[in-house]
Every structure is written in C-alpha cells, then in structure tokens.
C-alpha cells in the first residue's frame, strides 16, 4: 500500500494493527474494512448501554492516506518501534456517520 505522498510503501501489517487499535478503543463489532483510493473505510456496529438496554449504532470512519500515516506514527510511538521522521499535523481526522452514525 502506498503512503499518502505516493512515494513509499507501508506494510499492511502495521496499518491493520493501528486500525485494530482504533476499532478496539471505539468498541466496534461486526467490522468491515475496505481499502479505497482515498484511504481505508472502517464500518461497524457500536453497542452503547442506556436505561432501556443496549442501543446499536452503525458507524463508519474514513481514514485518508494522510490519516493512516498519523495513526501509524502514534502506533510506533506507543510500541517504541523505530520509524521515520515524524509527520506534521494534528493527528487522525476520521469522518463519522457516513452510513447513519453520529
């Protein structure tokens, strides 16, 4: 997979591990991951508890290629893995609610 600049390659193993961390943090279930030209689309169900029981919300996040570079950078820092130069920016900016979510 090409990085967002189109000049280098990124290992799927690292990308999927970083996206898996995001999925775990946001309690996604029944997950679908799709690679697009624009980046990676993650869809899934999020279960939240309320007074009546559980509520299921369909969520979707589009990680642009630049977002992927940012979440990879964060993943490398969490694991202490050697990596290239830090990428400037404010971190990932996934889009919410593409398919009925918030």
Describe the 3D structure.
This protein has helices at residues 12-25, 65-79, and strands at 28-36, 39-50, 53-64. It is of the alpha+beta class and 102 residues long. It has one domain. It has a 3-stranded antiparallel sheet. It is globular, with a radius of gyration of 15 Å.
What's the arrangement of secondary structure elements?
Layout: H1 12-25, E1 28-36, E2 39-50, E3 53-64, H2 65-79
Antiparallel strand pairs: 1-2, 2-3
Helix pairs in contact: 1-2
- As for the number of domains, it is 1
Major β-sheet strand ordering = 1-2-3
Label the overall shape. Answer: globular
The main pleated sheet reads as: 3 strands, antiparallel
- Helix content bin: 25-40%
Backbone structural class: alpha+beta
| Distance from first to last alpha carbon | 29 Å
Regions with little confidence, pLDDT below 50 for 5+ residues? 84-102
Order of SSEs, N→C? Answer: HEEEH
What is the mean pLDDT?
77
* Strand portion: 25-35%
**How much is the radius of gyration in Å?**
15 Å
Number of E strands? 3
With helices defined by DSSP (H or I, 4 residues minimum), what is the helix count?
A: 2
């Amino acid at each position: 997979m090409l990085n967002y600049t189109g000049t280098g390659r990124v290992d799927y193993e690292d990308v999927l591990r970083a996206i898996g961390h995001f999925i775990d943090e946001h309690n996604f279930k029944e997950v679908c991951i799709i690679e697009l030209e624009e980046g990676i689309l993650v869809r899934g169900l999020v279960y939240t508890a309320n007074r009546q029981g559980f509520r299921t919300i369909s969520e979707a996040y589009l990680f642009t290629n630049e977002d992927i570079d940012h979440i990879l950078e964060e993943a490398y820092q969490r694991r202490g893995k050697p990596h290239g130069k830090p990428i400037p920016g404010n971190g990932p900016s996934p889009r919410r609610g593409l398919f009925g979510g918030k």
